[in-house]
Structures are given as C-alpha cells and as structure tokens.
Design brief:
There is one protein chain. The chain is of the alpha+beta class and 393 residues long. It is 44% helix and 19% strand. The strands form two sheets. The protein has a six-stranded antiparallel beta sheet, with no helix packed on it. A six-stranded antiparallel beta sheet has the order 2-11-4-5-6-7, with no helix packed on it.
Length: 393
C-alpha cells in the first residue's frame, strides 16, 4: 500500500516537471523524491529547490541573450539605413557642384539666390585684394615716412614731384580698391568682416591724404637752421673756414651738408681734406663745366648732383674702402653709386680740413677759380657708412 502511494507521488512529480518544462530546454530527466503519506505536495516540490533555481537562472540568461540579439538586429538595420542615406548624399554632391561648394564653405545655398554669404570661397578674392592692398599701402607708407624725414629739405622740384607721385598713386589706389570691394559686395554678398576691412582701408587712405597735406603745408620750413651756416659771397682765395680738429684714419665715411648756390660755371669746392704728401686725399668739387666730383687719393668719381639753382639742397656721399663702393644722395634720394673708387685705401689721419677752398698744398695753395660761392650749412662727416635713415633723420 505504501509502495503504491510512493509510485503515485513519483508519477505526479513527473507530470509536474513535464508540465513546467513544456518549453524545449533539451534532454530532461525524472526526479523522484520520497514524501511521507501525510506530507504536503507543494512542500515536496519546494524540496527540489536546487533544480528550480538552476532552471530559473537558465531562463533569465536565455531572455537576456534574446534581448541582446534583438538589439543587435535593430542596430544593424539602423546602420544600413544610415549607409544608404550617406551614399545618396555623396552621389548628389557629385552631380551638383554648386551644392558641394556651398557645403565646403560651411553654408547652404538658398533657392533663387546666387550669393554665398558664408562660404570661404567667396572670401578668397576679397582676401587676395586686401593682401595686395596691404602690400601697396605698406610700400606707400614707407616712402611717405622717408618723405617726412626729408620734409625739412627745401621745396625743390624733385621733392614736389615725389609728393605729386605719391598723391596720384594714392588716388588711383583708392579708386581701384573701392571699385573692387564694391564689386565683391554686389556679386558675392560680402560678409561683415569684409565691410570692416573696407572701413579700415578708407581710414588708412584718409590718414595718408592728411599726412600729405601736412607735408605740403610745412614746405616753408624745409631749410636748415641759421646756426652752423657759412656764407661765401665771392670767389676769392682768402675766404674759407679751417676745421681745428683733424680726421682719424677712416676705412669708410659719410659726409653730408646743406648747399645753396647759383654760381656758374660750377659752384666750386665745398670742402677739401689734405694730408702730408697728398693734397687731394678727400675733395668735393664742381669746377668749370664739369659735373660735381669726389676725389679720394686723386681717384675721381662723378656725382649726379645738380644744386646751382639758388635753392637749398641736402647732399650726402658714402664710401667704403672695401671695393671702393660709393653712393650719392641729393634731397633724400639716391642719385648715383659705383665702385673701384680708391679701393682698399684708408683715408689718412693728421690732415687739414678746409671749407670753401681746394688745397694744392697742406692747408694752403688756394685758387680763386676753384673757391666755393654760396651758402654752406650743417657740414658733418662720420667715419662709417650711414644708412639713409640715419643720414636723413
């Protein structure tokens, strides 16, 4: 009797397990547990707790795997859609160059509009224009600064022609730049940055106009001061000035002075430097119908100076013993240059420097026909080659 009950109990448990395992979890096995006659069947099922927990964990894992699989499938579908859209965009950009340009510029072209207000491509011509303008303005500013340095010179025709040339170039530049900027703004819808640059351009041009005007107003003061000025009204052999100090040995020099003369033919000898054994160690002379010349150790270079118009002129001559290189400046402008003028011959010391006369002997031997006639001011000599900025500042 007890054996029959045990058999029925085992059968019931088997049915329960088969019912719970209706899903296909693979091979199954029957578990029989001895249960007392008066025991509860539910408690008997709980006795198989280890198997239940294991089955529950397996089910949870299967559910997690299924969810992840669904997620992966969904993501694959999204990737396929995005890939298809990207392919369509690439094919459209190939067929539509205008759209590619708009995208490359960072902006989108609006229908019915030929303007690209945000693209870098539309800014390229303006950028090139502004770059060229900057270079031209810088060149003009440099020349204008030199003109300001020379503004203390007299109002000679050469200085006036330089100012007129600068003024005409500025006017032409203004017309060209404003025309090009207007064209860019009308054709390309110029951005706000280009408008700001245009304002800067106009301001710079206005400033240049004002500086030119100030220079023109100050022309009356373009002459040396009354100090350090000598006057030689006649050609004589007794009017001169002798410098008390001698020159040192020089391997280079720069000599500058102001001259004003209307003498003809030739203005004479503004200065001469003689040393023992060489009366023409260093001489500046314009004699007869010859052009002005500079002599170093009896070697001669012709200078492009034209100063006998009765106006003040500022002249400078530089020289170096290496290769005998020389340069000549009149009113701040280089008029000539050359080499092989007494190369590798140093200017000797312990000589006599005379203003207004040419020396045939050390400190004397003056000839009235070679005397300087006119006015001489601010005579300076340096034992090195000055830059134009140093010489004319």
């Amino acid at each position: 009797m007890l054996a029959g009950r045990a058999a029925r109990t085992c059968a019931l448990l088997a049915l329960c397990l088969l019912g719970a395992g209706a899903q296909d979890f693979g091979p199954t096995r029957f578990i029989c547990t001895s249960v007392p006659v008066d025991a509860d069947m539910c408690a008997a099922s709980v006795a198989a707790g280890g198997a239940e927990e294991l089955r529950s964990s397996v089910l949870q894992l299967r559910e997690t795997v299924l969810q992840q699989k669904e997620t992966i499938l969904s993501q694959k579908e999204t990737i396929r859609e995005l890939t298809a859209k990207l392919g369509r965009c690439e094919s459209q950009s190939t067929l539509d160059p205008g759209a590619g340009e708009a995208r490359a510029g960072g902006g989108r072209k609006q229908p019915g509009s030929g303007k690209n207000t945000m693209g870098d491509l539309s800014r390229t011509p303006a950028a090139e224009t502004l770059s060229q303008l900057g270079q031209t303005l810088q060149s003009l500013k440099t020349r204008l600064e030199n003109l300001e340095q020379y503004s203390r010179l007299n109002s000679s025709s050469q200085t006036n022609s330089l100012k007129d040339l600068l003024q005409s170039k500025i006017d032409e530049l203004e017309r060209q730049v404003l025309s090009r900027v207007n064209t860019l703004e009308e054709g390309k819808g110029g951005p706000r940055n280009d408008t700001e640059e245009r304002v800067k351009i106009e301001t710079a041009l206005t400033s240049l106009h004002q500086r030119i005007s100030e220079l023109e107003k100050g022309q009356k003061d373009n002459r040396p001061g009354d100090k350090f000025q000598l006057t030689f009204p006649l050609r004589t052999n007794y009017m001169y000035a002798k410098v008390k100090k001698s020159l040192p040995e020089m391997y280079a020099f720069t000599v500058c002075m102001w001259l004003k003369s209307s003498a003809a033919p030739g203005v004479g000898t503004p200065f001469s430097y003689a040393v023992p054994g060489q009366a023409n160690e260093l001489v500046l002379i314009e004699w007869g119908n010859n052009p002005m010349e500079i002599l170093i150790n009896d070697k001669v270079a012709k200078l492009p100076f034209v100063i006998n118009d009765g106006k003040w002129h500022h002249i400078c001559v530089t020289w170096t013993t290496r290769d005998g290189v020389w340069e000549a400046y009149q009113d701040g402008t280089q008029g000539g240059s050359g080499e092989n003028l007494a190369p590798y011959h140093p200017i000797k010391p312990q000589g006599v420097l005379v203003l207004g006369q040419e020396q045939d002997t050390l400190g004397g031997g003056f000839d009235a026909t070679q005397a300087f006639v006119g006015e001489l001011a601010h005579f300076n000599i340096w034992d090195r080659k000055l830059t134009p900025g140093e010489a004319f500042s």
